[in-house]
Amino acid sequence: MPRESSKCREWEKERRNRLNEAFTTLCKLLPCYDPSINTSKIDILRNAATYIEELQTKIKSLMSENNDDSAQKVKREEFRKLQERIKRLLSKNEQLSSLLRDAKITIPPGCAIVRKFKNPLYWSNRILPEQAKILQKRELESEGK
């Protein structure tokens, strides 16, 4: 009989591991994911439900009759959220870089570079992607000099 109980324990352990991996995967998919914060399972589920509701609202607004206006609103809101997330990630990057420097650990090239993003110009949506790539190359070349 001891064999069966050990098998049950192994199966239960595997089930818990699969469940924990699923929660970790779900947490990583959420926009509020922060690897430095240990999020509880109930918070992960609540955040996922909230995020799904937000996405459903966005889909409904995009499918509505005022497609152009609502699509522009959604794009602007999404752009604003992405800018905020970039700012948070840049500040974390800066913090981590300073901690590494304080610990006298070498930082790989390009990892410690913190670029400040400028607000988009009023005409920024009116240039073609090819023109944007050319301008980006010029800017990177001028930064390198």
From TrEMBL:
Residues 3-55 form the BHLH domain. Signal peptide: none annotated. InterPro entries: bHLH_dom, HLH_DNA-bd_sf. One of its GO terms (molecular function) is protein dimerization activity. Residues 45-106 form a coiled coil. SUPFAM superfamilies: HLH, helix-loop-helix DNA-binding domain. Keywords: Coiled coil. SMART domains: HLH. This is BHLH domain-containing protein. It comes from Tenebrio molitor.
